[in-house]
Amino acid sequence: xxxxxxxxxxxxxxxxxxxxxxxxxxxxxxxxxxxxxxxxxxxxxxxxxxxxxxxxxxxxxxxxxxxxxxxxxxxxxxxxxxxxxxxxxxxxxxxxxxxxxxxxxxxxxxxxxxxxxxxxxxxxxxxxxxxxxxxxxxxxxxxxxxxxxxxxxxxxxxxxxxxxxxxxxxxxxxxxxxxxxxxxxxxxxxxxxxxxxxxxxxxxxxxxxxxxxxxxxxxxxxxxxxxxxxxxxxxxxxxxxxxxxxxxxxxxxxxxxxxxxxxxxxxxxxxxxxxxxxxxxxxxxxxxxxxxxxxxxxxxxxxxxxxxxxxxxxxxxxxxxxxxxxxxxxxxxxxxxxxxxxxxxxxxxxxxxxxxxxxxxxxxxxxxxxxxxxxxxxxxxxxxxxxxxxxxxxxxxxxxxxxxxxxxxxxxxxxxxxxxxxxxxxxxxxxxxxxxxxxxxxxxxxxxxxxxxxxxxxxxxxxx
Length: 464
Ligand SMILES: O=C(O)Cc1cc(O)ccc1O
Ligand SMILES: [Fe+2]
Fold this sequence. Notes:
33% strand, nine-stranded antiparallel β-sheet, metal ion binding, dioxygenase, Jelly Rolls, globular, RmlC-like_jellyroll, Homogentis_dOase, HgmA_C, binds fe (ii) ion, binds 2-(3,6-dihydroxyphenyl)acetic acid
């Protein structure tokens, strides 16, 4: 079911469509007509170009936006490194990733510390691959956020596009392009370089995020499915321009009041400036943040026999240079009818060349037990390149013996997967949380518990 669109404050207004060339004016005539950079842009604004691809990228991939703002982004003193950074996610040398073939599963990530964490502090890298300096790879994050970012603060990542999967609590996100509300069962993508502020729309918030160091998310090809299906383009929502006038504040200590934090090669830097970065009065282009309600996903599946590949559940895909091979696919497992005849209906046992990081937004997952020590909302699992996995013994035996009537699975549930062609390493924090305050979350007995007791059904070559 789609997340209801009623009763939301007017500041959250959206334009619809995926990858459209859009424009938005918070004040009429903020955008120049017929050109991008007139001698004097309208209304005394500065014209600033923000590119998301090389200038010369092919037309169908080219991404850029023209921003018309009160002051240009460059007006700030040099950045300085934040030391110590607010958490270990931002340390590059000390925070090496561990590449291990074990199946891993984590209990729900909770932060019981008394200290409240804002977005920048609450974002923890659990896994990753590649290198932002080479624009190759990805980072996988868990966040638990318990307070708004301070006023007059903004954050951006130079490392990549951030896909946010909201699991609990809603995020009130102010971007240079306008406001976005992201609620549980909704996702949001904030592309590389775009400045934003994150507040809490209610209580604390928890979720997952994937940072894409290369390329951008696209909708998957539909092939024989036809021209509609899966995530439909018109259901993606893009904010409308919204700005504030704040271009001259100085803090009492004589320093400029606005703090801009940047994640740059996984390090954290800060500068202070006198003007609000949220001063964009109008913009036009195809490089912008957007959101999507996972409840609008149009799920397809087998209506005859056998369990199809999970690629039919792909919401967004970030292709690599190799056709059909994604640096990151974002895949969901929504409620759906299973009707397969003579079919083992849950996922089959498998070993994949792709790595699979999974999380659970709500409910349960048909191949894994819930409850304590199981796969539960807010928890996660990682099945790395060629690491065998599949239904746990209980789910297997149940599905093997179950009556094959039409059955709705996943009612009230939504699991998801970040699938990547890259081998994924796990951070120290992800493995041990040594420096963290969240305690040990790795389930030591995951594999034994799930598959230690798989039964022999072989009857010495005799049919059952
Ligand atoms: O491992 C998993 O649970 C994810 C998954 C689901 C599925 O339906 C088929 C393959 C697959 O990797
Ligand atoms: Fe899998």
